[in-house]
Every structure is written in structure tokens, then in C-alpha cells.
Amino acid sequence: MPALLSPAGNLSRCSKCGLPETYETLEFDTQGVCNICRQQEFKHGAIDWAARKTMLEGLIEEYRGKYDYDCIVPFSGGKDSTFTLYHLVKEYRIKPLVVQFNHGFMRPNLLANNERTLRRLGVDAISFTPNWKLVKRLMREALIRKGDFCWHCHTGIFAYPMHVAIKFNVPLVFWGEPSSEYTAYYDYRDDAVEEVDENRFNRFVNLGITAEDMRGMIESDFPLDPRDLIPYSYPPLRDLKRLRYRSVCLGSFIPWDVKRQSKLIMDELGWQGDEVEGMPPGLYSYEKIECAMQGVRDYLKYLKRGYARVTQMTALDIRNGRMQKEEANKMIAEWEGKKPPSLEVFLDYLEMSEAEFNGIVEKLVVPPHKPDFQTIQWGRRTPDFERWYREPKN
Amino acid sequence: MSIGIVDVGIGNIGSLRNAVLSQGWDVVSVQAEDDLEAITHLLLPGVGAFGAAMEQLARAGLVEPIRRFAMAGRPLMGICLGMQLLADRGAEGGDAAGLALIPGQVVAMTHSHLPLPHVGWNEAHQLRPHPVLRGIRDDIDFYFVHSFRLAAGDATAVLAETEYGERFPSIVAKGSVIGTQFHPEKSQTNGLRMLDNFCAWDAAC
């Protein structure tokens, strides 16, 4: 049964949190409530978090002291990986190897946060930056194929730390937030711990494009060495199993509370939020501060699906009883769907015109949404706009 | 850890070998008694008739050595006909003695009004926990191909049962020995997990 019609558009929306039908994996029940709201009710009601905490302690002790590091913590420096690192170090005095995959668009505030966090916690860290020319080519291809230019980042973030786990012989890998918090690819109701493994990677991380596929798509016009794509490929299962690896989310063992955790890392680590394009400044300043291209990503989502991150964030707040629907609708109307200034930078990197960009997006729109390119206004620049890397003008 | 697979022409070992390798373990082919020395775990796959398979094992001089391997508390897993060979006797291809590690007889599935052989995916209803079943949910489907079944002589050795016209033991275990009527190597995620669990099992239960 279709849910309530929202004043913001012609899409059916969850009667509780307001997420629209174009949201991936979303389904409504007979009361017009979405499956993500329903599984959230389960998370709060039926998971035995005390038992999960005992599982976590058992897992940590199983690997403690046996390798060069107790675990690997993949780290973007955003709120989730910063909290994960903080929690493991402070609560369990674990010795982690922090692994960072640099997607190429880390913002100045994030870099400052990272340095502060790593220094204050006193941990070893390595950072990996892939070939920028290849990154740009991968972004163009993923944009054209899927309307999602973040393939290099998503695959790299999830695959590269697994290569490091093998190279350093460290079997335990701790991610932050479980995907059940946002989507229904995995369900809290299964009461199983989500393994961040190749199945998950292939199911939704890589957009259905493997590195091998990508090779075939770009090698005719890009001077590619097949080894260039290793950081974006999941390591062979046999190598990971030989290591007896475990790759899990801290959020499978403790209830994930983004607001509380963000405040904690601000108080304890001096971690700072940032203004993000398309978002009300100050309100969700801890969200998605890692990437200068976040505004373009959200804008693409808006063009394709008729909603962006204000809808998504307010849905989360409504679900957790922290906001009323009316307030959310007001905020969505004011902030969502503006053209981000980062679009100009992005198009520069990809040597693409806005008309070409719009033409690509038009083919990938998720029905029943129809974008209206004519009425869109520019959003405002974030304070660090001038400090983002720009290609030299010829 | 080194996983032995009995390789004396009584089963197709290719898919089993690949399944075990995919889980990160090293595989050794077992063709004679000496091969048992270097391994920690032994897999006994099998296809075909009971009597002929026992003859092959006897010809390779492996019947007593495999029995001794299991009696010493080293982990042994029989798969499909390999599970049936663990029993006392089998009727397929004439009455023959088995390895006598799991009490019972192997008999034809005659009560079934359904076509034989029993081929395809079917549920294993778990009756008791076991380390090799760790992380495998109850009533999960596995892949079967068989026309004979174990008539268990000791109900406590039956870990799981499956329904196909009649209820029969689909997983059996006793001491360091376990057997599956189905093919874990052809049963995707849950089958692979079972093989992985077996290879990690110290049989100290």
C-alpha cells in the first residue's frame, strides 16, 4: 500500500520517517511504514546487547597479542571510524594498525582531525593514496555506468585494508557502523553478526562492477597496468581464510548512537565537524565531512531519486524520536536539491560539461522520480572551497 | 593443519579439494597408509556402491589404517557414500562390512513414494549441537544425491535428520568422526562453512 504523499514531491514516502520509495531496498508494509523503521524497532527491542558485548570481548581476547597488531581499523577520519578507533583503544586498550585509503578529496578540517586523533590516541597508522589519473578515469566510468562516481572510493575503502591485513598478517578487522542501520541489505532481525566480506562487497559495495569489469571498460583509452586495479579488488578468499580473518563492525556488538558518539569524540579528541554542501550548517555537522565531492554525490542522488541527505538524516532522527515530521519537511524544503559549488570543481577534474553531466544523469533516474534541471539554484560555498585541489589551467 | 582426502577412485575429489582450498586449508591426497602420517584431518568422499567402495579401500590397504586414525581421536569426515562407509554394514551391491565407526546398517530407501535417487536441495533438521555445525542455522538446505540411507543403530549418533518420503539421518557423529549424507562441497555457503568448521575442529569433544 502506498504511504503518505509528501508535500515535497510526487513520491510515496514512509508514513513514519518520510523516506521515499526511490530509496534503495525500501519497502512499505500495510501501514505504510518502511522496513528500515521496522528493523530499527527490532534493534531496540530484541537484540541482547549484553550478550553481544560479551561476544566482542571474546573476539578481542582471541586475537590479542598474537600478531604484530591486535586488529586493523580502516579509518576515514569521519565520525564512525574515529569513534571505532577511540572505543577500541580506550575501552579495550587494543593495539591497532590504522589504515587509511585516501580517496583524493580529503578536506582540510578532516586532515587536521586525523592528525589530532592519531596523535592523541597514540596509534600506528598508514595511509595509501592511489594513482590520481586512474582515480579520475574510474570516476568518469562509474558516473557514466551507474550515476555514482564513488566506485574507486567504496571499493578501495573496503578492499585495500583487507590487502593490508594479509600483508601485515593481522586477521581481525574492525569496521564501524553496520549497514543495517541505513539499508535492508542486511537485517538486524536475522540476529547474525554481519561479516564485512566479499559477499557484502559484491552485494552492494562495488555497484556490481568488479575491478576486472572496470579493466575491460577503461583499458581501450587509458594506459592501464592490470596491477593498478589491485587496491580496488577484493583479495582472494583463500588468502583471507588462510589468515583465519574476521572482518566485523563494532556496531554489531554495541548499539550505534551517532549523536552520542559524535559528541564523545568532540569532547575527548577535539574532533571537529564541518559545513557540508546542501546541509543546514551546524545541525548535522558531524556527517560526511570527509570528502570535498560529497555535495556532488548528494546532488546526484537528488537528481536520480528525488531526495538527498537532509531527507535521509531527518528520517533517522524521526525514527529515533528526535524530530517531528513537520520540522523535517521544512528543513528539506529549504536545503535540499541545490546545485553544489563543488560541481564546478568536479566537472573540471573530469573535463566534462554540465550538459554532458546532466545527459548522463537523465538516463539513470529512478522512476517514478523526474528531475527538473531548469529550476535548480546554486547552493552556497563551504568556507574551505578555495583550498580544494584544482587542476592547472592549460 | 593439513587436510587429507582419500583418493583411491571411489569419489570425485575435485570439487571437494577446491572447496577445502578456498577455505584456506592445505590439501593432501591420501592413497596409502603412509599418507595418513602427515595429516591432521581426513575427508572420506565417495560415490557409487557400498561394496565396491569398501573393496577399493581394502585394495589400497586403507580399511584398518582409517579405523585406527579415527579410534585415535583424529577427526574424520565421511561425505555421501563416505558417510555410509562409516556404518557397520551396507547392502548396496551385496552385503558388505563397513568401517564400523558409526553403529548402523545402510539400506535402500524403499518407503519413499518419491522418485529415487533423492537428488537436490533438502533441509537438515538439527537434533543436537556439534562444533562442526557452529554458525549453521537449523533447517538449512544442503545438496543430496543418494538412493540408500543409514539405519542408525545408535540414536545418539544422529545429529540431523532429513525428510524424503521417510526421515533419515543426514548428519551423524560419534567421537572424532562425523558424516554427512549430503555434499557440503556442493552446498554453497553453509556447506563450505561446515567443511571449514571440520578443518578447524580438534575433535576434543
Report what the structure shows.
- The complex is a heterodimer of chains A (394) and B (205).
- In chain A, helix 3 crosses helix 10 and helix 12 (309-319) packs antiparallel against helix 13 (325-335).
- Residues 1-8 and 184-191 of chain A have low confidence and may be disordered.
- Chain A has 2 domains: 49-252, 3-Layer(aba) Sandwich (Rossmann fold); 284-387, no CATH class.
- Chain A has a 3-stranded parallel sheet with strand order 1-2-3. Chain A has a two-stranded parallel ribbon with strand order 4-5.
- Chain A is mainly α and 394 residues long.
- Chain A is 44% helix and 6% strand.
- Chain B has helices at 14-22, 50-59, 63-71, 81-84, 188-200; strands spanning 2-6, 26-30, 41-46, 76-80, 89-90, 96-97, 104-108, 118-126, 140-146, 148-152, 158-164, 166-174, 177-180.
- By secondary structure, chain B is of the alpha/beta class.
- Chain B has one domain (2-200): Class I glutamine amidotransferase (GATase) domain (Rossmann fold, 3-Layer(aba) Sandwich), CATH 3.40.50.880.
- The two termini of chain B are 18 Å apart.
- In chain B, helix 1 links the parallel strand 1 and strand 2.
- The interface between A and B is small, with 9 and 8 residues.
- Uncertain runs of chain A with pLDDT below 50, 5 residues or more? 1-8, 184-191
The ordered H/E elements of chain A are HHEHEHEHHEHHHEHHHHHH
What's the total count of β strands of chain B? 13
Tell me the series of helices and strands of chain B, N- to C-terminal: EHEEHHEHEEEEEEEEEH
Order of strands side by side in the largest beta sheet of chain B?
Answer: 2-1-3-4-13-12-11-8-9
Q: What's the CATH class of the largest domain in chain A, please?
A: Alpha Beta
Task: Write down the overall mean pLDDT of chain B.
Answer: 95
Radius of gyration of chain A: 21 Å
